[in-house]
What we know:
Blueprint: H1 2-20, E1 36-47, E2 57-63, E3 69-76, E4 82-88, E5 99-104, E6 113-117, E7 131-138, E8 141-143
Parallel strand pairs: 1-7, 1-8
Antiparallel strand pairs: 1-4, 2-3, 2-5, 5-6
Amino acid sequence: MKEMFGRFFQMGLKMVLGILGYSSISGCGGMYGTPTADFDMRGKVVNERGECLSEVKINSLSMYHDSVEHVRTLTFTDEEGTYRVMKDLYSLGWGNDGYPFRFVGDTTLYEPFDTIIPENQLHFKGAHGWYEGKTSITVNVTLKDKKKNVE
């Protein structure tokens, strides 16, 4: 009877520890979690005449399998046309080619500008474990004037 109770106790204990993520296999390197990386993107937005544009919206774009575009506003440019995005890189979402962003100014005056930052342009420093490190990039943007309809 004691032996049967001991076996049931061990099985129960193994199930509880398994649910909690513990394993008796050591040295496999199995981990639970989500990778993170500090992402710092900054730059300046101007028009074709080189004038600084304020209140330009910087969005992150993600395309999912259902082809629905998911947009998250990250920040706006200041009076000098400068901006800075500081986020966890993996919270931004990415497409097949990299990390897509859209810059949207006054839609009556300027065309939106889309860009993709390829992952191979990002150089990470200070990685350890699930933390991939930090990376920074400068992206300066020129918004094109909207074409006027001539009748």
